[in-house]
Amino acid sequence: MAFLRLGSKSEAFRREGQAWHCTSGLPSDVTFEIGEMSFYLHKFPLISRSGLLAKLIKDSSKDDVSVSELQLNDIPGGAKAFELVAKFCYGVKIEITPLNIVSLRCASEYLEMTDEYGERNLIAQTESFLNEVFGNWTDTIKALETCEEVLPQAEELHIVSRCINSLAMKACTDTKLFNWPVSENGHEDTTDTEVWNGICTGSKTQPMTDDWWYEDVSFLSLPLYKRLIQAVEAGGMRPDNVAGAVVFYAKKYIPLMNRQASFKDATSQTNKSGSTISTPSEADQRALLEEIMELLPNQKGVTETRFLLRLLRSAMMLQASPSCRENLERRVGLQLDQAALDDLLIPNMGYSVETLYDIDCFQRILDHFMSIDQASSAPSPCIMEENQLMEGSTSLTSLTRVANLVDSYLSEVAPDVNYKFPKFQSLAATIPDFARPLTDGIYRAIDIYLKAHPWLTDSEREQICRLMNCQKLSLEACTHAAQNERLPLRVIVQVLFFEQLRLRTSISGLFFVSDNLDNSRSTTLHGGNRNTNTSNGRGSSIDDMRERVAELEKECNSMKQEFKKVVKTKKKWNVFCGRKSECDLNSVNPSKLQPRHVNERKNQKNGGSR
């Protein structure tokens, strides 16, 4: 840390309680009151250095009092700064450091300590040392932190802006080009290098990463930090570096950003020694979160989607403003294809909680993504042939990722019995059909939803099954769907039909290939003996294909048998349900329907006749 020593005399002041006395031996003729501290000094050393003090002392001398009493409560830096000023006026040794330079510079300006009242006066001395401080990263940060104590005067003298500009310039400079002697955490590397026979044997300085300055500037207050971030953006820093610094600052001062921390213990955290460190209140965290939102770059992909989702969750817990939450949802929707399922499962924070997770929030995020995707893409792809899309939609890959994400999300929230059918249908229908190469994911979500909601009507079951394309189900999904009793009969018929159609297409394709191979083989035989080993290999491949065709035919027959069983079961169940009452009446003995005394008389007559 840089320092400047002024003065040559030994200590000439002593402190007694809340008072400072000069030990020069002469009686004091002026007293300064600064807060609770009193200074008993002499007029001449002060008049020769300060224009303001000379004016005040001159005005007080008109009262014909032996000891003048003056109030200096407005002096920047208070009693500590005035103590250094008084010692400078008396020529006593003082040490100026980055921790007191700002308050001393403001105090000297307030007291009008220009060169008019003495050569190399305090204003010139402090200004010269400030320029030296600005050349050092660590010293500039310390000086900027002390500006909080005298902020109005520091702003007026442009000390704050000069500190910020100095830090921004150093943060934006490529350290690889200049090889600055700054360690990874931003402090100077003062370790001496050992030299033996002209060869440096000391350890080399480790190359710095782009985040070397994050921790150092994180100790600044939010207003100063905000101005620094704006300065580095204006200096041309890459948006990802700016976002990294803002993320570091947010995680440090918003405890709710830590996923493991619960909402109840978010008001305090414990350091390694076990002592409790107070953290900002919820109101301060809410204000900080809303400011952080404004500092994050707007470019897509610059800020991690996981961080944005955690910030959104914290905003809901802290009850941030609706505009802040809407802005976060829009940012997440901009890069939803980069999100993970676990981060999207945001608990419902409302008082009238219907579902476990905030599904409405995810619906809004998805709507933002779809609106941006439709605006940035060409018109919806036109189908040229089956399973082929016209080229032109550059966002099809990201849309497919989001489709898989939506299907996985629906599978997670489907077991919730409070999840209403219209909301499930609306969320699933947001994704277009062409974005799902396979519909196994949406089928799994539908199956889970039907299992958790057995009270759905047949019409609702039909509607929910229209969300999936049976032609895009895999073989495993088709096998499961064909035996799924929760699906409507029409859907099962469709699954079996398309699976049989797929098998026929595969079989015809194999026969076509085998015919081509037979033709090529016959051509080869008529042309002469060219390669016997090759012909044997082709013959074996044809045999393998025929075996595969036989296996496919067996599978097709077995599926037909299963389909017949399912249809018979459905019909028997419908007949049973429709004619249950009629069957019950036919199975009852008519005599049992008569009154009891009539049956007893019949029994007596039958006994007598016997």
From TrEMBL:
Q: Which SMART domains match?
A: BTB (SM00225)
InterPro entries for the chain: BTB/POZ_dom, NPH3/RPT2-like, NPH3_dom, SKP1/BTB/POZ_sf
Q: Which domain of life is it from?
A: Eukaryota
The record's keywords, sorted A to Z, are: Ubl conjugation pathway
Region feature Disordered, mapped onto this chain:
522-543, 587-610
Q: Which PROSITE patterns match?
A: BTB (PS50097), NPH3 (PS51649)
The positions making up the signal sequence are: none
Q: Name the pathway it acts in.
A: Protein modification; protein ubiquitination
Q: Which parts of the sequence belong to the NPH3 domain?
A: 211-502
Q: Using the record's annotation, list all stretches that form the BTB domain.
A: 28-98
Compositionally biased residues, Low complexity: 527-540
Q: Which residues form a coiled coil?
A: none
Q: Which family does it belong to?
A: Belongs to the NPH3 family.
Protein name, please?
BTB/POZ domain-containing protein At5g03250-like
Organism of derivation: Solanum pennellii (Tomato)
Kindly list the organism's lineage. Eukaryota, Viridiplantae, Streptophyta, Embryophyta, Tracheophyta
